[in-house]
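Posting this for the archive.
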Amino acid sequence: MKIEKVIKMSAKEEIIEMIKNLPENVTTDNIMEKLYERIKIESAIQQLDEGKGIDHEEVKEKFKKWLG
């Protein structure tokens, strides 16, 4: 199953909307953090779309091993 955006906007439009929704006292660092989060989320969605994700059960097994 592919995860797709409901409304197609350019990256520029999406970023402008994101910034408009931030509080007036936002710092440049806050904006950069939000952009970084957006990039990481989009990358993760793309990996899932390409079938590169890890199955939930596999993750649970790995955590069991890590946590002993």
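Residues 2 and 50 are 9 Å apart (CA to CA). The chain has a mean pLDDT of 88.
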